[in-house]
Amino acid sequence: RGIALELGSEGYTVYCLGRSSRSSNKKNLPEQQRPIAPDLDCTVESAAEQVTQRGGTGIAVVCDLKQDHVIEKLVNQVFDEQGRLDVLVCSAYTTPPDNLRGEFWKQDMEMWDAVNGVGLRQVYAACRASAPYMIQTASEQQTTTTTTCPLICLVSSFGGKSYTFNVAYGIGKAGIDRMAVDMSYQLKKYNVATISLYPGLVQTEANLQMQVDGTWEEASGNLDLSKGETPAFSGRAVAALLTKLSADQLLERSGSVQVVAELARELDFTEEDGTQPPSIRSLHTID
User: Fold this and answer.
1) Is the pLDDT confidence value at 287 over 60?
2) How crowded is the C-beta side of 89, counted as CA atoms within 13 Å?
3) Of 35, 45, 119, 174, which has the fewest beta carbons less than 10 angstroms from its beta carbon?
4) According to the model, what pLDDT value does residue 286 have?
5) What is the distance between the alpha carbons of residues 280 and 277, in angstroms, rounded to a whole number?
6) SS percent in the chain: helix, strand, coil, step 5
7) Are 267 and 246 in contact (CB under 8 A)?
8) What are the C-alpha distances in Å from 149 to residues 11, 56, 114, 241, 246?
9) Distance CA 129, CA 99 (A)
């Protein structure tokens, strides 16, 4: 959501995809949906409205990305309506039904399916469906004065490099990182860039509600959420990559891991309050 809103601030047309809708019956929402404060509107309609309020064009699409072929149809719809596809951001993730932390042999296969269904399999499906349209967009951009290139941004985490939560989680995040690397080998020659984005600890609406409910410390391993990043910070990282780097500079980073807090110092952006949270690289070892 934070990325969608910041792209709106840059004037992008943003398709906001998700299950949460004002038209949904809350009683029928999936059990895995994490609670948020009752007064918050985190629906796709709300996200689309805020994108538009910020100067972009927000389009809400209610869908369940767990279902095969849904993303392919939506990508086709975007290109049919817009005639181009400049940015793909993959951040959807299904919360496991049980506590993330645990020894893998004591966790059911539902843990793997929850973590790596939407979070890995459908990310691959989205990239596969989007690549031809992004290649076409890049080809057409070469005849214009545009200074950037199409970007596939896969939202990952430090769990791709260092043990975090459980085995299934780490495999999924490492798979996301590897996807960015291997796609770059095939897409770079077409002037399409790929990156794996590492936010730090993020103050999502659901995480903040866990803190209110008293479940955050056990679930997170006593991480200090007060020192976390806002969702907007990741959005500003993506916006900075697209607006402050030339196409050649962005392509030079293709296939790499980009840490949000470190991008803030390099590309000179901040949180909404003007601060720059520290990188959590000091707590994890990554290459």
Assistant:
1) no
2) 25
3) 35
4) 46
5) 9
6) 50, 10, 40
7) no
8) 16, 19, 33, 10, 8
9) 33
b/e map of 70-100 (b: 16 or more CB within 10 Å)? bbeebbeebbeeeebbbbbbbbbbbbbeeeb
**Rounded to 5 degrees, what angle do the CA atoms 222, 164, 283 make?**
65
At residue 130 the predicted structure's pLDDT band, cuts being 50, 70 and 90, is: very high
**Bridging pattern class, strands 87-90 and 256-259:** unpaired
Helix 44-53 / helix 2-9 crossing angle, nearest 10 deg: 20
- Tell me if the pTM is above 0.85: yes
- Cα–Cα dist 223/218, whole Å: 9
The secondary structure of residue 226, as a DSSP letter, is G
Q: Find out whether 195 and 238 touch, Cβ atoms under 8 Å.
A: no
In the beta sheet, which residues pair with residue 198?
259
- Across 97-115, average pLDDT: 87
Long-range CB contacts for residues 34-41, cutoff 8 Å, separation at least 24 = 34/95, 34/206, 34/209, 34/210, 35/206, 35/209, 35/213, 36/205, 36/206, 36/208, 36/209, 37/205, 37/208, 37/209, 37/212, 40/205
Catalytic residue list contains 163:
no
State pLDDT tens for residues 204-258.
666 666 666 676 676 666 677 777 888 889 999 999 999 999 999 999 999 999 9
- Mean per-residue pLDDT over the chain, rounded: 86
